[in-house]
Amino acid sequence: MTNNTEITPEIIAEHGIKPDEYQIILDRLGRAPNLLELGIFSVMWSEHCSYKSSRRHLSKFPVSGPLVIQGPGENAGVIDIGDNQAAIFKMESHNHPSFIEPYQGAATGVGGIMRDVFTMGARPVALANALRFGEMENQHTKRLLNGVVAGIGGYGNCVGVPTVCGETNFHASYNGNILVNAMCVGLAEQDKIFYSRGAKVGSPIVYFGSKTGRDGIHGATMASAEFDVDSDEKRPTVQVGDPFMEKLLIEATLELMQTDCIEAIQDMGAAGLTSSSVEMAGKEGLGIVLKMNDVPVRETHMTPYEMMLSESQERMLAIIKPGQEHIAEAIMQKWDLDYAVIGYTTDTGRMVLEFDGEVVCDIPVGPLSSDAPNYDRPWVKPEVEKPVTAREIGELGDLGDALLKILASPDICSKRWIWEQYDRHVMADTLADSSHASDAALVRVHGTDKALAITCDCTPLYVKNDPYEGGKQVVAESYRNIIATGATPIAITDNLNFGSPERPEIMGQIVMAIEGMAEACKVLEYPVVSGNVSLYNETMGTPILPTPVVGGVGLIKNYNDAIGYGGINEGDTIILIGNTTDNMGATTAMKVLVGREDGAPPKVDLVLEKQTGETILELNEKGLIEACHDLSNGGLALGLAKMTMGSDIGIVGQVQEDIPLNAALFAEDQARFLIAVAPENEGAVNQILFDKGLASRKIGVAAGNSLEIAKAFKIHKDDLWKAFEGTLKEFVA
User: 294, exposed or middle or buried, with CB in 10 Å at 0-12, 13-18, 19+?
Assistant: First the structure.
């Protein structure tokens, strides 16, 4: 096809443009678009770039707060961590590319999210991820797992940024559509933050980084469509990454930012040169002229269509102050990066592309950005599962065997094989990571006593069975994980992974999950500062479990005050904070031991969550806690097992007897923590908990080499480890 190709209904459909959307394009242009113009509209109006199905609902999120410097709308969110320092972070998906080409899909997901962060002036200091694969029995799971983990490790390790935490789950709903969500956290000085806004008329547009190739063309469009029988043919739409080039790009970009050259800057991510130029122009109501013959390319006879839609990696676009192009060029030459002035800004409000002496594109910028479709898609309120009680599911057999089965289950088992492939300590500021007994990673703010707490969380089955309560729980669990390290939660980024929004039942999941998340963010004062939406995650009409992942960031002012669940000492008292009911709906125990995934998930009392979290921080500030662990999947029994393994010491105790024993052990009620307290502090802790009106009970004492619960089980800690460590290692062998 050439730029003179007749635009037929078939070509329009191939570009992911619906007939009614094409009519809008005709109305905006007053004529039919050529192929290049159609391609530009197709990527900018894709779900991946425009959020056309979710934008109106995302506006429900609280996005501001006393420590928020920049909320959604830029490359990443920015929060104040004191001393003129800022943490900059975001999470994004690379789901479809990772299923088609797992190594490069995951690797370029890591590279892309790092560019979002250093584009704003931050040096990346930590990576995290949330991974979902099909069931272990699926023939493709092992290959996809190997490729994705190798891609994440291969890219992050080579760039020299530690991968410090994450989560990995397995479920049949991901058999045909895995999820790869990557998060990056960076550090910057507050007075040296850069934005994609700020461009002025008549300024040069400069390109630097790698050359443009034909990889990744229509990547954004592909990421906005469900999979079908021809998905394997989409391999050319997957980008190819070069982590060593990314390292050069980081250093060159940060050096450029030390000058006074930049008006606006944007990395070339989804939709490549198209989105980066449109976003910078659109935010200031400007026009742009790009001279396509000046774009650095690595392949011969590339067309403007290919240049504009390519998603080749490790590329940046900046608008420079007039007359200072030579400064930028010198820096790029120093770092051996391609550099070219490829255009300039105008006051026309139009995107004009020139090639071989001709104008090959002339369209208004507005419809590409602010005027993109904004749908109010039909949705139906999801039916909420009915509660399932412990009495209904009956006895679970030998409770010791039950705990060992849960420890060995794919979602719960040790992910050592994964995190050992990641360099977790490069940069020498990682204080706690996946290998530590900590509910969140801790990364020191270099040269200070401060540390950032970082976590990724989601319980998809909760969201499926009750999207509103499940949405609340996703945020609440992130909040608790930050609290359990002794850090104060500040803000979140999110990655909302769902099926097709064109199906009212899926759109209902999206709407209700967002409303639940938004309510939790408001009550917990835990705003959303950045995020990503990934829709159409389904294959042949089968959707994934709704998976809205939350990446949380908090701050601890002195990392010497940090706590984990591995600090128990002989003789410590173990106290359970919070109430336990007999609801077993959607629990890990139900799934693993009974083979059922039904039932209403636990209710989330957000006021109680906040009160409990603030109390934990108060207890820690007073030096009254030796260890802390929040309770979630697997309930009390799994929490005690992890504390036993993490501290290498046994726990002897008993649980409440006013509910069935299987509920006391395996229910997953929220707003619960386990804390370890030195005997001399037990009275002071109990008094504070009583004064706060929080339910609590002594569960046991740290002693011996076994986890022993009266009337339930006695399991040696070595047997806990054996069950926990075996499953994934055997699967990948």
Answer: middle
Buried/exposed 659-681: b ≥16 CB within 10 Å, e otherwise: bbbbbbbbbbbbbbbbbbbeeeb
pLDDT band at residue 710 using 50, 70 and 90 as cut-offs? very high
Measured CA to CA, the distance from residue 719 to residue 405 in angstroms comes to 11
Torsion of CA 128, 134, 135, 137, to 10 degrees: -120
pLDDT single digits (tens) 120-170: 999 999 999 999 999 999 999 999 999 999 999 999 999 999 999 999 999
CA angle, residues 192, 75, 258, in degrees to nearest 5: 25
pLDDT tens column, 20-30 = 999 999 999 99
Q: What is the 3-state secondary structure (H, E, C) of 288-315?
A: EEEEHHHCCECCCCCCHHHHHHCCCCCE
**Catalytic annotation, residues:** 48, 94
Give the separation between CA 643 and CA 679, rounded to whole angstroms: 18
pLDDT(322) > 70: yes
**How far apart are the C-alpha atoms of 130 and 670, rounded to whole Å?**
21
* pLDDT recorded at residue 237: 64
Contact in structure between 610 and 698 (CB atoms under 8 Å): no
What is residue 3's predicted lDDT score, i.e. its pLDDT?
77
CA 201 to each of CA 264, 281, 343: distance values in angstroms, whole numbers, following the listed order: 12, 10, 12
In eight-state DSSP terms, residue 223 is: T
Query: What letters, b where the CB count within 10 A reaches 16 and e where it falls short, cover 693-726?
Result: ebebbebbbbebebbbbeebbebebebbbebbbe
Output the pTM of the full model. Answer: 0.96
For the residues of 361-412, what is the DSSP string, one character each?
EEEESGGGTTTS--------PPPPPPP-BHHHH---S-HHHHHHHHHHSTTT
The single residue listed with the structure tokens 């006051």 is 347
Residue 93, both tokens: 């998906």
pLDDT averaged over every residue in the chain: 95
Average pLDDT over residues 631-642: 98
Average pLDDT in the 224-230 region? 57
pLDDT digits (tens, 9 = 90+) for 456-484: 999 999 999 999 999 999 999 999 999 99
Q: Is the pLDDT at 235 greater than 90, yes or no?
A: no
Question: Are 637 and 403 a contacting pair, CB within 8 Å?
Answer: yes
How high is the pLDDT of residue 414? 98
- Please, what are the domains in the chain? 564-733 (3.90.650.10)
Q: How far apart are CA 198 and CA 674, in angstroms?
A: 49
Output DSSP code: residue 72: B
DSSP states along 409-428: STTTS--HHHHTTS--STTS
pLDDT at 229 over 50: no
From 277, 295, 249, 239, select the one nearest 115 (Cα to Cα).
Answer: 249
Provide the 3-class DSSP secondary structure of residue 131: strand
Q: What token pair was written down for 368?
A: 């590409």
Is the separation of the CB atoms in 373 and 52 below 8 Å? yes
Residues with Cβ within 8 Å of 553's Cβ and at least 6 positions away in sequence, in order, are 79, 87, 89, 185, 452, 453, 454, 482, 489, 490, 491, 492, 493
* Rounded Cα–Cα distance for residues 151 and 109 (Å): 9
Q: Are 421 and 150 in contact (CB under 8 A)?
A: yes
Tokens of 231: 């998905």
Report residue 278 as tokens: 């449109």
Beta-carbon-side half-sphere exposure of residue 501 (alpha carbons within 13 Å): 23
Question: What mean pLDDT is predicted for residues 679-700?
Answer: 98
Query: Tokens 């929490």 map to which residue?
Result: 639
